[in-house]
Amino acid sequence: MRTKAHVSLAERTTLGLGGTCTAEVTLETPDDLERLPGVLSSYSLPVFVLGAGSNILAMDGEHELLLLCPDFSARPEILADEGERVSVRVSSGTPLPQLLAFCRREGLTGLEGLAGIPGRVGGAIAMNAGSFGSCMGDVLERVDIWADGALHTFEREQIELAYRVFAPKKALGKPWFVTGATLVLARDAHPEEVGQRMAEHMATKKARQPVTVRSAGCVFKNPPEGPSAGVLLDKAGYRGKSLGGVAFSAVHANFLVNTGQGRAEDAVRLLCEARDRVAQLYGTELSLEVKTLPWHSL
To answer: Bridge partners of 95?
Structure first.
């Protein structure tokens, strides 16, 4: 377990915005979970669970807040191989690219659509990340969650899963976070095609998304019906629109990017303006996909 005081949120998030928080506790091994209740009690601060920080809009200023960062990981492990059905154990701290590389080597299909998504397995599960028609929820068999001072195992049917939604049906005290999961994947009849599909998805993302700049991915969720958030923002004139040091990407209108010395204050103003304009023009209420740190109502 590592601790650090006065932590820069800009340095801990891919968007590169935000002020500071009081402290950060990083969990390095599962054994750290035994000490965690006492550590949290000693700080007596609101807790925000943070992984790789790839879908976070952190606010400016100094925040009396404790970052809790589960960073223990292990190599993905095949638990059972029944031909078409393969059970794989993963740790929450495992980077998504590492999991996808494992799937490519083993010829396992089911997660190709997540190619190019940054972050770690725990965060991808907690927000049910997805792309190109696939998401983490599609392959979940069971999930381990730390909450209320203990580990809990939830089977798939005990979890509510929907578009960008992962919610245990049993009420849990906060903070809670994913520590690991068992995924059910399939062994592809043509293993080499798994890597080919990943490469195709990655090439598509590079052509359509600003993957080389500081961003937090898509900022608004797609509406349940009708045009996507990106299309609505584009039609409303927000592709490439900037304020201060932040802007909607000229490549994809639903990506907010940090163009240099961005401030969260400017990001919030620009997001609110875009959300209200889309509602005015098209009658569609956009909701945030990124998480604000600390919680902030736009």
So the answer is: 120
Selected catalytic residue, list 218, 239, 263, 275:
218
The domain made up of 2-70 has a fold known as: 3.30.43
CA 11-204-229 angle, 5° bins: 70
| Distance of alpha carbon 279 from the chain centroid | 26
- Catalytic, 289? Answer yes
**21 an active-site residue?**
no
Per-residue pLDDT at 214: 94
Fold of 210-293: 3.90.78
Of the candidates 115, 109, 145, 108, the one whose C-alpha atom is nearest the C-alpha of residue 130 is: 115
Q: pLDDT for 107-159, tens place per residue?
A: 999 999 999 888 899 999 999 999 888 899 999 999 999 999 999 999 999 99
What number of residues does the chain have? 298
Full-model pTM: 0.92
Question: Is 75 part of the annotated catalytic residue set?
Answer: no
Residue range(s) in the chain whose domain bears CATH number 3.30.43.10: 2-70
Catalytic one of 24, 106, 112, 289: 289
* Catalytic residue from among 28, 141, 164, 273: 164
- The reply to whether CATH 3.30.465.10 applies to domain 77-207 is yes
